[in-house]
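Hi F.,

I've been meaning to write this up properly since the lab meeting, where we talked about keeping a consistent format for the predictions we share between groups. The idea is simple: the sequence comes first, exactly as it goes in, then the structure tokens exactly as they come out, then a line or two of notes. No screenshots and no reformatting. I'm using this chain as the first example so we have something concrete to point to.
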Amino acid sequence: MSFWDTIRTSASGLLAQRLRLDVIANNVANAQTTRTAAGGPYQRQDVVFMPAAGGSGSTFSQIIAAQHGGMTSIQGGVQVSSIVTDQTPGERVYDPSHPDADKSGYVTYPNVDPVVEMTNMISATRSYEANLSVVEAAKNMAMQALNIGK
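Output, unedited:
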């Protein structure tokens, strides 16, 4: 694996974890949204990763494009295969004065659990930091190799 392969692999992880953090932030922001354009309460979303296909000639711009459009091929990296919606039903609370209450007076809230979201956020942050450490280590090794050649 070359220096650039290492950077590409870590870049794929950085982008994947950044997208995961964006999805987590969206879940937290909508934790009290009882009415969406699709009707009903907000349903939490989760990111599904898979190993990147072993292709050659990947560029950083392909990695960035993949974040907005789907899969990419990065040898040894990771890619987002999909963003799935959690179909677990949300909590029903009796509140007949709420504008989204049903005929029985119950409001269905989103299925977002703040503890789960915080745990996922910590995991994504640590994964992001680990990928950043790999980039920094690869950079330091390349600098050391250049210094040896002097």
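Notes:
The chain has a mean pLDDT of 87.
Residues 3-148 form one domain.

If this format works for you, I'll send the rest the same way.

G.
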